[in-house]
Amino acid sequence: MKNALLLAALIAAPALAQTPPATIGQPTIPAPWWMKDPVIASMGHVRTEVPANRARFAARFSVVEKTAAAATTAATAKARELDAALAALGKDRVRLTTSLATRPLYDQYRQKDGTIVENTRADQIEAYEVTAVLAIEVRDTDLLERAYRLAVAARPSAIDTPSFGLEPGNDLKTWLYEAAIKDAARRARLATAAAGSRLGMAKVIDPSGGVCETQVLAGWPSYSGAVPAADVAVPSEMARSADAPAATMAAPAPPPPSLEKLAADVQVTLQPPLYPLAGQACVIYGLLPPA
Hints:
Elements: H1 2-17, E1 39-51, E2 54-65, H2 68-87, E3 94-106, E4 108-110, E5 116-118, E6 125-138, H3 144-153, E7 158-159, E8 163-165, H4 170-194, E9 198-206, H5 210-213, E10 230-231, H6 257-264, E11 274-288
Helix pairs in contact: 3-6
């Protein structure tokens, strides 16, 4: 029994040691280990703009027939040519999802006062409207205008306005973090030079930036306002931020000749918008006495 209690105490000890040393508003708290000597906490905060690397729109093909089966067959037949043309661009570049929406059309009659009444009973269905919805996600925005021209050339019943989004790649995220670390070092050098001191070695590097936001003298943890971001330029090879580099993708196959000829006459300009990206990091440096 004693051994069990001792083991429980040893297990609980690390958890107790991790308990915050104070609550917000407490006048004094133990300083963290990195404040035993003079230090400077520098928050690196960078901002940039990157073109969207995702675009989405849908083409809809609607058909009305006496039976749901006939309407479904006709609607999917209309969408088939566009589906084949877009699939030829490469599944890594253009992703397609086809869905069907079926709507019954009921018998209608007009009353003496001119009001139109629609019978909504199952035995009063006159026809069916089936809409084949081809949802298109363009993952290589270099192909966006071509994909949209093909969709217009297919003569759908309706076509959506493209929407855009940004999915940063791992290389871009890593570059942002590196840029934030460099910005923290730059700010620390400027501050120590202005104060007549010298910058020592880094003691803490925190990619979340939380260490720099802790107000030790006011009670831990409480947080200050954000540091203004410094603008940085993204290297051109990272600006695409796609899941797969364009150089590794196979060249798109030509669409069917019938659609290709019609698409050549469609003039559209679709330029992906710029999206802001920000990165931050905190670096705690030691301070050296003046030389």
